[in-house]
Amino acid sequence: MSLYWYTPTPKEHLNSGDQKRVSPNNMANRVFTVQPSELKNIKNKVVVITGGASGIGLATGKLLISLDPSNKIGIIDRSPPPPSFASASNAHRILYQKCEITDWKSQRAAFANIARHYGRIDAVYANAGIAEYGDQFFDETMDASGQLAEPDRRVLKIDMDAAADTVRLAIHHLRKNPEGGSIVITASLAGYLASAGAGLYSAAKHGVVGLMRALKQDTKKFNIAISVVAPAITKTPILVGNREAEMNIQSGVSTEDAINQWSEKMSKVGVPINTAEGIALAVCHLIDGGMQRNGAGYLVQADKIWDFEAGLAKSREIWMSKEMLDLFRGGRSAPLFTRVDDPKAKM
Asked: Nearest 5°: phi and psi at 145?
């Protein structure tokens, strides 16, 4: 199926039944879906996926392997992917690197091993992450000394700090390629619309969106496209952290069944649910588009995609006001921070 999307304009307000078929090159501010047959540029690619042993990362790895027999992937994770994935026919195309993602040296070594094994890296999907881990703001737990206990910051360490490390390593390897490459980071709907009850998770996901925005002009100088994919609720093992799903597992229900039961319950009350495969298609669409996708932010709900960043850019005058936007534009060229030199300017 081709891409379908719609957009309201000042002169024409379209409803969801008025979708228009348009060119895939005109992506701004559209709702669309992707089919594997449309991903024609992902061939002979070496793609690194952090958190690639399960969920969205695993689904993305499977899609990449299926798209073309020349594609290869490096999986960086604490646990290996399922044995069924690395079958005899695919074993030479899948390299697993055991890694503690929050340890810089461990992640650096994993990247180096993948680059050495395949000779290069063409794209990186920074996907490793966890959900909110308990209440870190209103819980009154005391430590051994009777003082308020230090909060558990593992969500920030994994979802923000380690993701930033992944991006740094990605830039290091991709800038070696004359043709550059692509970086995709897993953000979340909570990275645009914060989720009550998930303060640190929302902060971390807002952080990676901000990281992408801050880097996109400089990565472009090296032909490196950087973007985010922002899934809403998705059927993956990360939902095990949901209290109801966790209770079902403790009562003897399998993890997969617990996730399916909770997702089905949420779907019945109107919550849009993604599949891991739907997010994988969005990720690969970002990679497939190369520099055309630099700065994109794909919001995904019910496996439908919208470029949040394009929508925000087009509506700045609405959410900033014209006066504030003009003030911002007036000082935009000021050298407030040190910028990366464009290597092409030295040639």
From this structure: -90, 0
Tens of pLDDT, residues 145-162: 999 999 999 999 999 999
18, pLDDT greater than 70: no
Give the C-alpha separation, 203 to 255, whole Å: 27
Nearest in space to 306 (alpha carbons), one of 314, 298, 295: 298
Helix, strand or coil for residue 72? Answer: strand
- Sorted by where each starts, the structural domains of the chain and their CATH numbers stand as 40-233+272-332+339-346 (3.40.50.720)
Q: What is the pLDDT of residues 30-63, one digit of tens each?
A: 899 999 999 999 999 999 999 999 999 999 999 9
CA dihedral 79, 66, 296, 341 (to 10 degrees): 80
Q: 283 and 229 in contact (C-beta within 8 Å)?
A: yes
pTM of this structure: 0.88
Per residue in 237-289, pLDDT tens?
877 655 555 555 566 777 788 888 888 888 899 989 999 999 999 999 999 99
Q: How far apart are CA 198 and CA 104, in angstroms?
A: 26
Question: Using CA atoms, how far apart are residues 65 and 93, in angstroms rounded to an integer?
Answer: 8
* Mean pLDDT to the nearest integer, 164-182: 98
Alpha helices in the chain (DSSP H): 55-67, 104-118, 154-156, 163-174, 199-219, 243-250, 255-268, 276-288, 308-314, 316-320, 322-330
Spatial distance between the Cα atoms of 325 and 332, rounded to a whole number of angstroms: 10
Q: Is 163 exposed, middle or buried (0-12, 13-18, 19+ CB in 10 A)?
A: buried
- Phi-psi group of 270: left, alpha or beta (phi > 0 → left; psi -120 to 50 → alpha; rest → beta): left
Dihedral sign, Cα of residue 160, residue 274, residue 189, residue 284: positive
Q: How far is CA 326 from the centre of its chain?
A: 32
What is the number of alpha carbons within 13 Å of residue 210 lying toward its C-beta?
Answer: 9
